[in-house]
Amino acid sequence: MEERGLSLPPGSFEEKFIRSGGHGGQNVNKVATTVQLRFFPHASGLPYAVIERLKALAGSKLTADGDIIIIASEYRTQEQNRQAARARLKELLQRAARPPKRRHATRPSYGSKQRRLESKKRRGDIKQSRRSSDNF
Questions:
Q1: Does any domain span residue 28?
Q2: Is the pTM of this model over 0.85?
């Protein structure tokens, strides 16, 4: 599979065609149009960090062996389903290739600290006024 900026070695994925389920009559029962694309991240030559992000993004598509399975059955032809499965894999790989943005530590402003302390003081005064002087 080779597209702009993305090239995977031949052994890093395999496609299997299976029969679709659900409605569709004779065509569904006779023709194997659903594509099951199995991607092997460790055989792909991707960096470790990208593979880890990919596994996190895959969710329920991730198998116990660490493979990613994408099933495409929305079209009536094998070729359209193959393209749909590959497009989903490509989108998943592109999302995993983008490193997360680094968080820049910030501090609360002086004004926000003052407002917080003032609101705490006001709340304490309200609670103080509810107390009866007979308890002491």
A1: yes
A2: no
